[in-house]
Amino acid sequence: MIIALAQLMVVLDATIVNIALPSAQRDLGISDGNRQWVITAYTLAFGGLLLLGGRIADLVGRKRTFVIGLIGFAGASALGGAAVDPGMLFGARALQGVFAAVLAPSALSLLTTTFTDPKERGKAFGIYGALAGSGAAIGFIVGGVLTEYLDWRWCLYVNVPIAIVAVLGASVLLHDSPGHPARLDVPGVILGCGGLFAIVYGFSEAESRGWSDPFVLSLFAGGAVLLAAFVWWQKRAPSPLLPLHIIKDRNRAGCLLTMMLAVIGMFGLFLFMTYYLQVILGYSPMKTGFAFLPLTLAIIFGSTQISARLMSRVQPRALMVPGMILASSGMVILTQMTVDSSYTSEILPALLLMGLGMGLTFMPVFATATAGVAPKDAGVTSATVNTSQQVGGSIGTALLNTIATTSSAAYITAHLTGPAERAAVTREGIVHGYTVAIWWAAGIMLLAGLVAGLMVTARPPKHEVPSQEAVPESVG
């Protein structure tokens, strides 16, 4: 529960400030061009430094890294809540991302090494998968309530009491194995983190600059060169940051790719539905947050009541493939929405299907991707799973938003015949852009199901004590 609480805090913080952003922008005088940095400062630092965080967890010890990450995250949250100008808020969000990159992989690797019995492991990963999948939606609800009834700053302050409870619980309940002495791969850190940072930054900048902008293209090219150099170096490094055997495993590679593709679609849903509910249907921030509640409940149900019960009996892909088909079906329903759609009859069924599908998928992805890893590689494996999430989220937000914006502009240009109808055509054009992008998201989720079906061939775990190669002796 302590590990799940920390994971919830990290995932929730990627979205909780979305609904609070207009209030923060007015309060601090942030320009329209710079407001994106409240979001991207966090995701860039988080995604770019995750591999380093995973290796630090392996070297220093997971419990110690977990506690350091919690304390640092709480401090950065308090700093952001007290921000007096845009630069202070951007810096605090980046600092949150740094400590999240330390916290997230140590949390998942602690879960991997603490729960070794297949039945208990299934329950633990069911809870973890539910929180990982629903944390973003919970962020919308909490963000809406705090913004409407207190102040946008509480969307950051709320992390402080959560972190205090988690630190106290970790000190009492969690056990740790000692760190594994080894040299830190400094060239690997620079090449790997630099390459990821350049690519994630490129996707974030593509939203405002366009995909063909020279700066965006140079970021993608530079990121690709750095990552190629990273792979070349990892083959030769005496103590590699990311041992390549981790991603050479067919099942693990399939899970990582499935996760990334699934999150692309999910982040697109959050982005468009938030704007659709508030701008088109006129929902308040709190009502918008609660509109996502059925999605959250469906993710939790699918993860804890279906995936967790079946994981020890069926192959992981027998959960992941139907999960992605269900999620894609929910997206297809959403492509039919109009400027006056009914939430109950048209939006709600889609959210329930989407949530159930993501719940079926997340838990077996986490469990399979981290299974059978040597103790010294548990942290970096966990970081790789989290990195696939962050990269998927960044790609999804940038790619689908660009598709939606372009489609909306084309629709408005084609249908606008006079100033009298500008407002109506603009609303219709915005929704048209959303539906075009959601069609893409539905296709991407079907692709995720295809990847899972072809690449993830692992069998269900046997009911036996894992070998000492997979579990540290000192974990209680």
From TrEMBL:
It is a multi-pass membrane protein. The chain crosses the membrane at residues 34-53, 65-84, 90-113, 125-150, 156-174, 186-203, 215-233, 254-277, 289-306, 318-339, 351-374, 437-458. SUPFAM superfamilies: MFS general substrate transporter. Keywords: Antibiotic resistance, Cell membrane, Membrane, Transmembrane, Transmembrane helix, Transport. It holds the Pfam family MFS_1. InterPro entries: EmrB-like, MFS, MFS_dom, MFS_trans_sf, Sugar_transporter_CS. Residues 1-460 form the Major facilitator superfamily (MFS) profile domain. This is Puromycin resistance protein pur8. The lineage of its organism: Bacteria, Bacillati, Actinomycetota, Actinomycetes, Kitasatosporales.
